Amino acid sequence: MVMSPGAIARYAGAVMSRWKPDADGRLIEAALVLFDRQGYEDTTVADLAASAGLTRRTFFRYFSDKREVLFSGAGELERLWVNAVTGAPKGCGAMVAMEAGFAAVAEVFTERHSFAKIRARIIAANPELQERELIKLEKLASSVAAALEERGIEAGRAALAAYTGVQIFHLAFARWIAQDDPGGLLPLMHESLEELREVLTS
Amino acid sequence: MVMSPGAIARYAGAVMSRWKPDADGRLIEAALVLFDRQGYEDTTVADLAASAGLTRRTFFRYFSDKREVLFSGAGELERLWVNAVTGAPKGCGAMVAMEAGFAAVAEVFTERHSFAKIRARIIAANPELQERELIKLEKLASSVAAALEERGIEAGRAALAAYTGVQIFHLAFARWIAQDDPGGLLPLMHESLEELREVLTS
DNA sequence: ATCCCGGATGTCACTTGGTGCCATCACCCT
DNA sequence: AGGGTGATGGCACCAAGTGACATCCGGGAT
């Protein structure tokens, strides 16, 4: 299981507090287990909260809604990608800067292949969750586009590069989930991008 | 206002029935007006139903949920695009077949510019509606990909062409909404696609 | 030691979206 | 005349969110 920021902080020598530590992490863990076992629809927020030793009201203090418990990692992903784009070698083109994000993202996912598989299975089984996933990708693309603009790339080209890059990531991620090699995400992204270049120019 | 299928059928010589005709059309109309005037969140389904002379329960017989009342056209859009792809000249490449869809889609939207503007304003103001829009585009892309496969195009290339085409449509549509020329959608789509080719190969 | 403050949690009431079930009631067909 | 049909209304109910307030313990200030 991936540790939440809170979990790490408390693990690192914090004193025993009044409440069991890592409430958000426990909620995420409960969600993964229960959603996968009995389905998203058939799991109530009260179920999740009880499984984590909390109440409904407290769940909504950590996550703005029931779907969000599966998407807490989206912010981190966005930060990673944006930083990679921002830190790409000065003067390189839009797509090259974009691809710097590929590497950063692929690396962080290699240790989470089995986690990602379960999560993907849950999401694939429910349209509400797919909607949330799509809007997270949209947000990601728009942030990456902003990072490209920051590098002096014209807005239109930045948007095209960013949205296409995220689209490629999405597709490659789906292929990566469907296979068994946890390290194969980066090559899949590059292959997909090459394939797109081919399709567009043929 | 765009007439719903029911409205057209009844308009074409149907006899007076027990109920006021075009219930779904009235609900859509009410949604456009009320969502725009007082916001999506601050409009209840009961408000919409009352405005159309119906009850909450009846609303949910026409639309599976509150968001869906703004997306009844998605099916028609998908049919149009898929038919265009299927009917494209035999033997032409993936992207050329895709672009046949561009023309079909652009044409149907030229008469709905002001409608589309209002609708876009409503959607832009609410994340729930943006999510629904994104999943409709996803569904559109996947159907177009299937239509491309039907033409003998390999699955991977079909997916890339379809998702990219829909992405381009999405971007061009946003630009079209932001301007005043109701006929300019098709050129915008082609320009955006050309721009993408340039970004990808530079 | 006492007091107070702050922050994480619990409790409760309430609105709204969404659904299942049954009643109604005009129209149509035989 | 009578029965079927289909769109609608009414009602009860569950689950997702939300706002307001109470609680309760640890830590710091006096």
Give a written overview of the molecule.
The structure is a homodimer of 202-residue chains. Chain A has 202 residues and is mostly helical. Helix content of chain A is 71%, strand content 0%. The first copy, chain A, has two domains: 17-64, Orthogonal Bundle (Arc Repressor Mutant, subunit A), CATH 1.10.10.60; 73-201, Tetracycline Repressor, domain 2, CATH 1.10.357. Chain A contains ten helices and no strands. The longest helix of chain A is centred in the C-terminal third of the chain and has 24 residues, at 127-150. The radius of gyration of chain A is 19 Å and the shape is elongated. Residues 1-14 of chain A have low confidence and may be disordered. Chains A and B meet through α8, α9 and α10 of A and α8, α9 and α10 of B. The structure holds a DNA duplex (30 and 30 nucleotides).
Could you give me the name of the CATH homologous superfamily of the largest domain in chain A? Tetracycline Repressor, domain 2
Query: Largest inter-chain interface?
Result: A-B, 28 and 28 residues
- Poorly predicted spans of chain A: 1-14
The CATH first-level class of the largest domain in chain A comes to: Mainly Alpha
> The CATH topology of the largest domain in chain A, please?
Tetracycline Repressor, domain 2
Query: Roughly what fraction of the amino acids of chain A lie in strands?
Result: under 5%
Count of extended strands of chain A: 0
What's the helical proportion of residues of chain A?
A: over 70%
The overall pLDDT average of chain A reads 93
Instruction: Specify the CATH architecture of the largest domain in chain A.
Output: Orthogonal Bundle
Multimeric state: homodimer
Helix/sheet category of chain A: mainly alpha
Ends distance of chain A: 45 Å
